[in-house]
Amino acid sequence: MLHRDLDQRPPPSRLLATTDVRVVPAGRVDLTFARNEGGGCDAVADWRTAHERFWSDRAISDETLVVCERSRLIACLS
What we know:
Layout lengths: L1 E4 L8 E12 L5 H6 L7 H11 L10 E12 L2
Antiparallel strand pairs: 1-2, 2-3
């Protein structure tokens, strides 16, 4: 699946291809995923803190299901 990455603001900056999608409990997100997501997280706890801030309108527990998507860069658009 191809998609455009808005990089938090339009216009789209990158074209990405999804390579893997997993739905897992937040408490089972692993260090490899946290590091590869690109937010500069060197620990799962850092990933969790950043996402709890982003999802501040929701209560997040270890059982909350999250979508872990891996992708690869196809092209830079900007």
